[in-house]
């Protein structure tokens, strides 16, 4: 396909970055939710449990399962939210279940408090993964869109690391106080961030939209006005001024292909084995002969994963989405095969003590490779591959599939271990990674630095050939600015 871009300097990147960082405080808070069970499980299962009788292993497994289950239900419900609420208003409403969830943990006296808290956290997580990609996509320039979208997973990983560290040094009742303070900080700072210009135009609030665009473009009135014109043109060209319907998901080839690609990416993200690697971290460190405590091992793994997501943020606009995802799938396959082979030899009574460092290296490499590609790749591609009028609905459907797949993997992994053995499970996960690689190699287009219209046209089978067509080039600053 002919390359149809000529990127020049754009205005307001720093302000777009600032807005992205502030809204991603939600993602950081959700990362703490994900990481919280790891340092808390030992206390909850001890005779001195703060919530009554000690929790069993099955009780602890439900802490993650309920999170995924409530998240999958809420992700489906977000499909009716998109154009009925403003992004900012939804960003504030989202803090209500988060605050209640941590208050329940702070005052928990029995298991039900914890389960309700996790259900509310799952609801908040589903909305977080809906609102952040959409908000960031609607305020960002094409040249930094991927980098800003990748900050979501980076923030989640910071939250997980914070949960491991704070959970290891703070009491069960004190940790929620710190997290509630972080939520309050988000509420205060988000006040100063702009509403989505796309939402304002849809609501015919043109004067507010131009004011927001001037802020996002660092006061460049010409770019703001051209961007406003382009958004108005996009909405006018949409199939309908009404919110997208489920029937719109099959309206053309590009939308159908986009749904298949993004849903496939999210399923692949869960099947690649991130849950298996995290849940076996302690065992892998023990096999290496490490004397580190389980919490210290978890902190090391979380730090490695954070490094990977940081590298992904740096490389996503340089190496491209497709290359990083393919590299991620191939590398994770090798890591699974390495650990699976080690387990197989260990179970077969081979002497492997001299090579006990290998699974730790494979685990660390896996975490970096996952974060580099499959960790944030689906989120980035999801924010770029759909027409603007269908993005919210398609994102809600895709994220709901991810949550459902995560729930299935969470509750079935123990049964798979009993059926196939631990080495068999890792070989199965390696097979899933091969399938992910082939799926992405065949279907996934490169979206780096391209206009949304170009990507949609490619999926529709239309090639960009007219270099003078405003919809297909990033020409002068004024035209480029039209593609927020």
UniProtKB/TrEMBL annotation:
Location of this chain's protein in the cell: Cell membrane
Topological relation to the membrane, as annotated: Multi-pass membrane protein
InterPro entries associated with the record: MFS_dom, MFS_sugar_transport-like, MFS_trans_sf, MFS_Trehalose_Transporter
Any one Pfam family match given in the protein's UniProt record, by short name: Sugar_tr
Record keyword Zinc-finger present: no
TM spans (from-to): 17-36, 60-78, 90-109, 115-136, 148-166, 172-193, 259-278, 298-316, 323-345, 357-381, 393-410, 416-444
Gene3D superfamilies: MFS general substrate transporter like domains
Domain Major facilitator superfamily (MFS) profile: 17-448
GO terms of molecular function: transmembrane transporter activity
Protein name: Facilitated trehalose transporter Tret1
Record's keyword annotation contains Membrane: yes
Highest taxon, organism lineage: Eukaryota
Assigned keywords, A-Z: Cell membrane, Membrane, Sugar transport, Transmembrane, Transmembrane helix, Transport
